[in-house]
């Protein structure tokens, strides 16, 4: 196989994987919280400010795990989402008893980068 064909195949694979990730995104809600230590995943080791706690239901399903990086975007494209906001990445550090199955608490710093924190909760897409 020629070098050009290998490069073309790799580019195609990368582009295709981007579409697969986006199309398999879950929808839900997010709110902000002040991260606390200790956490269920990392005990007393602080994981910084770009963190998340997933709902107990998501935790039990096993699709999302400790230390996994979630990509989250504010869905809807209007207030309270910030205009032009991009997706953010947060690390799963904990779980909590949430009011809904697909409810994620993200640090205020992370939340504020995609939405107005005064909104309380926002619709999201995540994977």
Automatic annotation (TrEMBL):
Recorded coiled-coil stretches: none
Organism of this sequence: Daucus carota subsp. sativus (Carrot)
Alphabetized Gene3D superfamilies for the sequence: RlpA-like domain (2.40.40.10)
Signal peptide: 1-25
Taxonomic placement: Eukaryota, Viridiplantae, Streptophyta, Embryophyta, Tracheophyta
One Pfam short name: DPBB_1
Name of the protein: Expansin-like EG45 domain-containing protein
Residues annotated as domain Expansin-like EG45: 51-126
GO BP terms, alphabetized: systemic acquired resistance
Superkingdom per UniProt: Eukaryota
Entry's Gene Ontology cellular component terms: apoplast
